[in-house]
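Translate sequence into structure tokens.
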Amino acid sequence: MKSRQRGLSLIGTIFMALLLAGALLVGFRMIGPYKEYFALQRIIGLVADEGNNGASDSEMRQSYDRRAIIDSIEEIKGRDLVISKENGQVVVEIEYERKAPLFGNVSLSFDFTVSSKKNRK
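Result follows.
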């Protein structure tokens, strides 16, 4: 009776390790842009609530700038916010793009849209 060995060969193990390393690299590079996105979502919701409580556009932009400094958001400024009113509610929106370098000249590109009307129920 012949016994047949089962399992991964050395080449199979190396291939699986490379796939896992690539997936981990992409996953770790995605953390920064998504962390910034969720911080912006929270900040924009708070700024819109201030607008609903009577704050002017310039006060909302200044409030955003102060909150962005705390969360280390450097590239998106208060002047980039689009502030409007819909159905008597202040809506604050921003669209932006982030690139996360992987290796060499290969990067991940993220297009985000953050709006305060998505946060409301």
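Note: The chain has one domain: 32-118.
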